[in-house]
Amino acid sequence: MVHFGTSGWRGVIGRDITFRKVRQVTQAILDTVLPKDDRQHEVIVGYDTRMLSEKFARSAAALIAGNGVKVRLPERDIPSPVLSSAILERGADAGIIFTASHNPPEYNGLKLYTRDGILAPTEVTDPVEARYRELEADWDDVFLPQPNRITSCDPKPAYIERFAELIDWEAIRASGLTVVVDPLFGTSREYLDHILMEHGVPVTVIHNTRDPFFGGYAPECTSENLTRLRDVMRQTGADLGLATDGDGDRFGILDHGARLKESNLALALVLDYLARRRGLRGRVGRTLATSLLVEAVARHHGLEIIETPVGFKNFGPLLVEGSLEFAAEESAGLAWSRHLPERDGILACFLVTEMVAVEGRTMYELGQDLFRRVGTYHFRRTQVPLTRQLEQVLERRFQQEIDQVDGLEVVATDRRDGLKLSFANGGWLLIRKAGTEPKVRIYAEGRTKEEMRHLLHLAKKLLSNWRLSDV
């Protein structure tokens, strides 16, 4: 089965992701996404550092060229936001990148981008899935190679140029900040670090080689995975640690003292900074799984909030049409419409660096000031494997009408993406299936740590076979 979740099609290499399926899905994309006209179409095909990503990309490029479509193939692996930039720069009809983002090394996948440089929304990917099912039944996998239609390209210079005027490099240089960069063996190496160095920022770089196994762990900016970054910060006395995930569209930040900053707090601080210092006045998007701290900051500055289901693909059309200026997703996703209509972990790292430089304070100090102005919010996300038994429990829970849990009155229920319960005391919990791997994600937020932990405990009880009356 091929399914485009919250961030593309993903699966285990050799089981779910095979060369045959890659070509079938690519053909389905050509049949449904490209305009039906007589002009020469162009598709950009990128890839990350994972095992077989480059070979998958070349196989897809050969098929696209065999359909008479021009293909631009980058000279090396690229971050996903660089593909977005390249599509807009060249006016391409679509873009494909082979990546599984932050998933473990045994995974791979495909992200589809529209001509607007955004992750394809559901109304685009549903027809792709339907066409794939039609092709699957009778696919001969034969096409006439047309290698002359495949041209190499270097999207890096145009992408780098986007930051020339967007970021206050003079303030960063004047602050004397020192930085350690960790691309986690992924695609942002020689992007994040090189841009900083080109602007005179002292940088120490780790994990900056191409490793399809990412050092043996998932390229995700978790506390455990950033241990080496933490160690190097302490050894060098650096002010900030900047990390990105496998395809560079998510970020991780270590503050002075090598303390990991929770992504919701980082998103809220950047939003507050842009509203105070950079003239951000447009609407702010947040997913229903993102901390209410982001909403509190927006309201503090008189900014309108738009809430969407989980998945950055829901923000893309709104960013393109101008309905949003800033978008935030709790899984370390950030977009600012002055840059790209798509999330970019490299941008997030630069904005945090600028913020700390301009304010002359650590993120911890900035956070304490923010809490005094808008209040405190305590958020946590955890996950458990999705088993067949748990799936049955979820089906039952998602259909139940729930008025109270353990004496807490439920004031709102949201079933757009799993089950979200909001309580009279201002806390909430969310249970949903992950859109990129076989996991169940559990989210909880309260105004105190104790309240948050209690809600997390209740969420886990809801996942058991207990009757609702027992919870």
> Between the first and last Cα atoms, what is the distance in angstroms?
36 Å
The shape is globular
The portion of residues assigned to helices is 25-40%
Could you name the ranges where pLDDT drops below 50 across 5 or more consecutive residues?
none
Number of strands: 22
The proportion of strand residues reads 15-25%
Overall CATH class of the largest domain: Alpha Beta
Order of strands, main sheet, comes to 1-2-6-5-3-4-7
What is the makeup of the main sheet?
7 strands, mixed
Q: Give the CATH topology of the largest domain.
A: Alpha-D-Glucose-1,6-Bisphosphate, Chain A, domain 3
Indicate the CATH architecture of the largest domain: 3-Layer(aba) Sandwich
Describe the structure.
The chain has 471 residues and is an alpha/beta fold. The chain has 3 domains: 4-155, Alpha-D-Glucose-1,6-Bisphosphate, subunit A, domain 3 (Alpha-D-Glucose-1,6-Bisphosphate, Chain A, domain 3); 174-374, 3-Layer(aba) Sandwich (Alpha-D-Glucose-1,6-Bisphosphate, Chain A, domain 3); 378-470, Alpha-D-phosphohexomutase, C-terminal domain (TATA-Binding Protein). It is built from 15 helices and 22 strands. It has helices at residues 19-33, 53-66, 80-90, 122-137, 156-161, 169-175, 192-198, 227-236, 263-277, 292-300, 316-321, 345-359, 363-374, 388-399, 449-462; strands spanning 4-5, 8-12, 42-47, 70-74, 94-98, 107-114, 150-153, 179-182, 203-205, 240-244, 251-255, 259-261, 284-287, 305-308, 326-329, 333-336, 378-385, 404-405, 408-414, 419-423, 428-433, 439-446. The strands form 4 sheets. Strands 1-2-6-5-3-4-7 form a 7-stranded mixed sheet, sandwiched between helices. It has a 6-stranded antiparallel sheet with strand order 17-22-21-20-19-18, with helices on one face. α9 (263-277) runs parallel beside α10 and α9 crosses α13. The protein starts with a strand and ends in a 9-residue tail after the last helix. The model has no long low-confidence stretch (mean pLDDT 95).
